[in-house]
Amino acid sequence: MIWPFRHFGLKVTSLTLAVLLWMAVAGEETVERGLRIPLELQQIPSGIELTGDVPSAVDVRVRGASGALSRIGPGDVVAVLDLRGARAGRRLFPLTPDQVRTPVGVDVAQVTPSAIAMVFEASVTRTVPVVPSVDGRPAPGFVVGTLKADPATVDIVGPESAVKRATEALTEPVLIAGAKDRVQETVTIGMLDPTLRIQNAKTAVVTVQMEPAPLERTFRSRPIHLRNLAATLVAQAEPAVVDVMLRGSRDGLARISPDEVDAYIDVAGLGAGQYMLNVHADAGRDAGVTRIEPSLVQVRITRGQQ
After folding, report:
1. By the 8 A CB rule, do 106 and 69 touch?
2. Rounded to an integer, what distance in angstroms lies between the CA atom of residue 199 and that of residue 284?
3. Is 5 a domain residue?
4. What is the value of pTM for the model shown?
5. How many separate domains does the chain show?
6. Co-location of 158 and 132 in the same domain
7. Mean pLDDT, to the nearest integer, of 23-39?
8. Are 159 and 176 members of one domain?
9. Taking the C-alpha atoms of 47, 51, 56 and 60 in order, what is their torsion angle to the nearest 10 degrees?
10. pLDDT digits (tens, 9 = 90+) for 245-298
11. Domain that holds residue 78
12. Does residue 130 share a domain with residue 103?
């Protein structure tokens, strides 16, 4: 037998709370508010690609109790567009309040815009070559030789018109600044067109071969400068001039003036005496020094007059 007055106090308390909650909700003012909410695209059919600009958000006006609207957080209200019936071409999809997901107690009064225009194209795949990219300049006297990428080709996928325009996939630049030998690096492959995607390999091993520059030029009778000579000493080189041979590209060698070719001997730490010392030369970044004639000269160091 069920006793109706069993736990009577608990039942009265529950009923009282329910009545108070109803009174609080019923007493709340119904308000309307404008919101900008995300637009979520679902069920895009396989075999087609969405092209052009599509809004990522839409405007809605929502209605409900002031308390319910004040509790709305990011992502609580979302417009959902079902694209399962999409076909290639320009399409117009209506957007109604029924397609807006809301929390309990919140209704949608209006959606702007009321329709979304979209353009779809057939999705196609094509094989394109991978073109390596480099950054920097090799060491003076060297030029960039052959460039190879492994894999040499990749498959790209995307809207038909964009795939037809694409001619190559690019790599992240390989740094070759100051290089004299082969440079090899694993880098990312990418496409300039954001509507295109690489279907298979995401990285490539790029090999850059450095080669001696193709031309030489001789700068004759360049004076030898003696560097780092102590202030109390006097030095003289015999012979006092040398010929400096440079290797570089045609344009690089043409840019070099004779005064830019600096032949020198470093005499730091040497005292009075007679020495056979190596000659060095600087010629900037456009060419490399391949030979100095003579490469060894006699240097006589004496103490200066007091």
Report:
1. yes
2. 45
3. no
4. 0.60
5. 3
6. yes
7. 77
8. yes
9. -90
10. 998 888 888 889 999 999 999 999 999 999 999 999 998 877 889 899 999 999
11. 28-113
12. no
Please indicate, yes or no, whether residues 129 and 195 belong to a single structural domain of this protein.
Answer: yes
> Alpha-carbon distance 143 to 134, whole Å?
12
For residue range 172-196, list pLDDT tens digits in order. Answer: 999 999 898 999 999 999 999 999 9
Residue 175 falls inside a structural domain: yes
